[in-house]
Write a structure and sequence with these properties.
- GO terms for molecular function: ATP binding; ATP hydrolysis activity; double-stranded telomeric DNA binding; G-quadruplex DNA binding; metal ion binding; single-stranded telomeric DNA binding.
- By secondary structure, the chain is mainly alpha-helical.
- Among the domains are: about 170 residues, no CATH class; about 130 residues; about 90 residues.
- The protein contains 16 helices and ten strands.
- The strands form four sheets. Strands 2-1-3 form a three-stranded mixed beta sheet, with no helix packed on it. It has a three-stranded antiparallel beta sheet with strand order 4-5-6. It has a two-stranded antiparallel ribbon with strand order 7-8.
- It is flat and about 200 Å long.
Length: about 1000
């Protein structure tokens, strides 16, 4: 019972909450805030509000948003619940009674339920400490009504003070979901343990399958299995992930080593680069003064060469001008003897004459271009006229061909039309016109004749068409008669066929009666045999015994369930004990595997199996040693890189010096022709001196020879100008003059060749003088620079070999230490895991001791697995017994169905035998009906054939009548013979003669 306090009426109303036990106490305290109209449904019949016949009274709207479907405009008394609200009143209605109106004054003093305490009911104890309190949400709505009144499906609606609508999205029955979330227990525990109905409180004694299902729901066995499966999958996934991470770790270690190696290489290369830059910088510092000195030398040399070239150019120009002057003097036939002014006047006159002639030449060229243009236009016009002439000639030829074709056609047409005077061509225009006139006359005559013939044929065709229409009408009537007769014939034939079929059936009826007698006897015999062999009573007795056995098995299963329930109280402890024991064995196995896997390796490295701290100290020392070795190796690599760079620079410099020496020697050899530079230069100077003397001699010889010839020729001297020897004869004088003149003629050529040779030698001398610094450079390179570089290169090679040996030694040492460090690092991970496992093992042993203390003093000879196995065996046996019961019941049903089937077969055979006996009595009547139908069918056959023959005759007349009259040349008589079978005979021939 529940008690509500704080109400305005004199006595406190009492009511029963649906779903709450009668022994529950419900205490509510009054609050000062205004009540919610939705809690007005908790009113009781103790209140005397006046009745309200309609929801529309005083303008109060119905909370259902419309009138009741049971009674228009009124609230139906059969609706489960209805809450109406309006500005002046609240409607309260309990199912089974009339609606009642609650005024606002009544709502002002109503109470609300906030908490409910439960004690002494079902699983709630009777002590104060067992009391449970349920706190309700505000506002609370209580639906009151008998079973089936609709409390579950009734939606809650209300209208608040400010006109705002509030509604629940789910139905009231879904409060189970809210209870589950609030109480923190599953639905199966609420239904089967806490709020178990008294009528269903003996569910632990139910059948095994249902009981197992309820226990699974209570203990969430499915969720536990799913959780175990999920844990297994997660463990498998994590294990796979660990394997992938280990593989990835392996590659990451390789990448790390590669990165360290690359970092070391970068360090060595950077050291090489630094040393190379220092060497280059020192070389650049040494090269700067040399470059400045070389630049000054080059500038001076360029000035010298430029001045020399200018001198040579001026001399060459002078000589060329002298040469040109001499050649002009030789080429001139007549030397102008006038003044410069006269020569300029003559030159200007000549220029004017030249310009005049050029002007006339331009005019003539312009006139020539004009004439050429006119000639091109005339040639183009000529070609167009020639094309036009060819086209006209082609048209003329085609015209003549058309005339010849026309004449040929006229001759052939005149021959066909039998016209005279057109045998020979060509024809004149008058003959052509005459031919056209004759052809038109013949055409008009033929057209007139054709029109007369067409009129005659049209009249005949109309007459024939009229006859055809009459014949078609007759044919149509015959066709309808034939169709009618054919339908009657078909119907009679079907009747005759059915009667004959019945007679055939009746002919075999006597044999069928004998067969039915045999089958009936056989069926009766089988029926008696089946009834005799039936063991239905035995099977029923066996079913009863099996059911008793099933009852015993059910009782045994219930006992096993009780035993299982007793064992389940310690299942958690035993399960945890087993899990801890298994965990301890797994950890022992893991520790053993780790020791077995790394014992030999760690013993070989340290001499004993260390712990984590000892191994970390050893790794720290090894790491320090490796870093020192790497630093030393990096320093050696840096020195080696510097030495290699220095070697490369020395090699490059040595190669450059050697190439420079080779190029200098080649240039020197190209100029001198040998390597003896000083002797060649001295010899060349002597040759130049000789050539200079010879050139001076030849230059003076020309003047001397000219003077000698002038003296000998002009002064008529008879002695030699040199030796003063006299000439005996004129011939000797002329011979001397001729000899002098020949020498005088040869003197310029010899002078020219001598000057050319002298220039070449001077040029070669200048080139050799320019090679004097190069000769000094060659001496320096051979005697000083190249030997020094070769000595440096040998020293650097010795240093490089020493550094390589040191680096190889350090790399060998590092290659021996790093694998030991790596293997120790791998072992460190497992040693760390082993120490963690040892700590966990101690914790597990402590927990095992605690669980063993809890289980001490308990007699648990049989485990849950054993009881469960026995239960499964009993359940399997129960299933077997149930299957046997079902099988026996099926056998009983099959035997009963077999007997029933045999009885129905016997009855069917008796019925068929009676039917055949009745049909034999109708045989005489069917034979008479067969004779009559045969006679009628034969008569209809004859009539149909006669009508068909007449219709064919009309068809033939129609077909022959539509032929054109001009085609029918003659008429003749013929006979048409049509074979046909007589209706009453199998074979026969009839004939009919007709005039066609």
């Amino acid at each position: 019972h529940a008690t509500v306090s704080g109400c305005k009426p004199a006595r406190a109303p009492s009511f029963r909450l649906p779903g709450v036990p009668r022994a529950c106490g419900v205490n509510a305290r009054r609050r000062s805030d205004p009540p919610d109209p939705r809690r007005s449904q908790g009113g009781t019949p103790g209140w005397p509000p006046p009745p309200l016949s309609s929801c529309s009274r005083e303008g109060i709207p119905c909370g259902r948003d419309g009138p009741s479907p049971s009674l228009p405009g009124r609230c139906s008394p059969y609706d489960p619940f209805l809450l109406c609200s309006g500005p002046a009143a609240k409607l309260w209605w309990a199912p089974g009674s009339r609606p009642q109106l609650l005024r606002k004054e009544t709502f002002a003093n109503m109470s609300r339920i906030e908490k409910m305490s439960i004690q002494g009911v079902r699983s709630f104890g009777i002590e104060d400490k067992d009391k449970q309190i349920i706190t309700f949400f505000s506002p609370l709505t209580i639906l009151v009504g008998p079973n089936g009144a609709g409390k579950t499906v009734s939606p809650l609606r209300s209208r608040l003070q400010h006109g705002e609508k509030v509604s629940l999205s789910s139905k009231c029955a879904e409060i189970d979901r809210e209870m589950i979330s609030s109480l923190g227990v599953s639905k199966s525990v609420l239904n089967n343990v806490i709020f178990c109905h008294q009528e269903e409180s003996n569910w632990p004694l139910s059948e095994g399958k249902a009981l197992k299902q309820k226990f699974d729901e209570i203990f969430s066995a499915t969720r536990y299995i799913k959780a175990l499966e999920t844990l297994r999958q997660v463990r498998q996934t994590q294990g796979q992930k660990v394997k992938e991470c280990q593989t990835e770790l392996k590659y990451l270690k390789q990448n790390k080593e590669k990165a360290c190696e690359i970092r070391d290489q970068i360090t060595s290369k950077e050291a090489q680069l630094t040393s190379s830059r220092e060497i280059v910088k020192s070389y650049e510092n040494e090269l700067d003064p040399l470059k400045n000195r070389l630049k000054e030398i080059e500038q001076n040399l360029s000035k010298i060469m430029r001045l020399d070239n200018e001198i040579k150019a001026l001399e060459s120009r002078k000589k060329q001008m002298e040469k040109d002057n001499s050649e002009l003097e030789q080429k001139m036939e007549k030397v102008f003897q006038g003044s410069d002014e006269q020569l300029n006047d003559l030159y200007h006159n000549h220029q004017r004459t030249v310009r005049e002639k050029e002007r006339r030449l331009v005019d003539c060229q312009r006139e020539l271009e004009k004439l050429n243009k006119e000639s091109r236009l005339l040639n183009q016009e000529k070609s167009e006229l020639l094309v036009e002439q060819g086209r006209l000639q082609l048209q003329a030829d085609r015209h003549q061909e058309h005339i010849r074709a026309r004449d040929s056609l006229i001759q052939s047409l005149a021959t066909q039309l039998e016209l005279d005077g057109f045998e020979l061509g060509p024809f004149s225009e008058r003959q052509i016109k005459n031919f056209h006139k004759l052809v038109r006359e013949r055409q008009e005559k033929e057209a007139e004749t054709a029109s007369h013939l067409l009129n005659d044929f049209a009249g005949k065709e109309a007459l024939k068409q009229k006859q055809i229409d009459e014949i078609r009408d007759k044919k149509t009537g015959l066709g309808r008669i034939i169709e009618l007769k054919s339908e009657i014939l078909t119907k009679k034939q079907n009747e005759l066929k059915n009667v004959k079929y019945e007679l055939q059936q009746l002919e075999g009826s006597s044999d069928r009666i004998l067969e039915l007698d045999q089958e009936l006897t056989k069926a009766v015999r089988e029926l008696s045999k089946a009834e005799k062999n039936s063991n239905v009573e035995t099977l029923k007795t066996e079913v009863i015994s099996l059911q008793n056995e099933k009852t015993d098995l059910d009782r045994t299963l219930r006992k096993l369930d009780q035993e299982m329930e007793q064992l389940n109280h310690h299942t958690a402890t035993r399960t945890q004990m087993e899990m801890l024991t298994k965990d301890k064995a797994d950890k022992d196995e893991q520790i053993r595997k780790i020791k077995y896997r790394h014992s030999d390796e760690l013993t070989s490295l340290l001499g004993y199996f260390p712990n984590k701290k000892q191994l970390e100290d050893w790794l720290h020392s090894k790491s320090k040693e490796i870093n020192q070795t790497r630093d030393k190796l990096a320093k050696l690599n840096k020195e080696l890189a510097s030495a290699e760079q220095n070697k490369n620079h020395i090699n490059i410099e040595l190669k450059r010096k050697e190439e420079q020496l080779s190029s200098y020697e080649d240039k020197l050899f190209d100029v001198c022709g040998s390597q003896d530079f000083e002797n060649d230069l001295d010899r060349l100077k002597e040759e130049i001196e000789k050539s200079s003397k010879q050139r001076a001699m030849l230059a003076g010889a020309t003047a001397v020879y000219s003077q000698f010839i002038t003296q000998l020729t002009d002064e008529n001297q008879s002695c030699c100008p040199v030796c003063q020897r006299g000439f005996q004869t004129e011939a000797e004088l002329q011979e001397v003059i001729s000899d002098l003149q020949s020498k005088l003629r040869l003197a310029p050529d010899k002078l020219k060749s001598t000057e050319s040779e002298l220039k070449k030698k001077e040029k070669r001398r200048d080139e050799m003088l320019g090679l004097v610094p190069m000769r000094q450079s060659i001496i320096d390179l051979k005697e000083k620079e190249i030997p020094e570089l070769r000595n440096k290169l040998q020293s650097v090679n010795r240093d490089i070999q020493r550094l390589k040996n040191d680096i190889e030694e350090q790399e060998t040492l590092l290659g021996a230490i790093i694998p030991e460090e790596e293997s120790a690092k791998v072992c460190l991970t497992d040693v760390t895991i082993m120490e963690r496992l040892q700590m966990e093992l101690k914790d597990v042993e402590r927990k095992i001791a605690q669980q063993a203390a809890k289980l001490q003093g308990l007699d648990l000879d049989r485990s849950v697995q054993q009881v469960n196995q026995e239960k499964q065996e009993k359940q399997h046996k129960l299933d077997t017994v149930s299957s046997k019961i079902e099988l026996n019941r099926k056998l009983i049903q099959d035997q009963q169905e077999q007997i029933q089937h045999l009885k129905s077969t016997t009855n069917e055979l008796k019925s068929e035998k009676l039917q055949i006996s009745t049909n034999l009595q109708r045989r005489q009547q069917l034979e008479e009906q067969t004779v009559e139908l045969s006679t009628e069918v034969q008569s209809l056959h004859r009539e149909i054939k006669v009508k068909t023959f007449i219709s064919l005759f009309f068809d033939s007349r129609c077909n022959f009548s539509v032929l054109p009259t001009t085609i029918i040349k003659s008429e003749s008589e013929s006979r048409l013979v049509i074979p046909w079978n007589s209706p009453g005979q199998n074979t026969g021939v009839g004939s009919c003669s007709l005039l066609q």
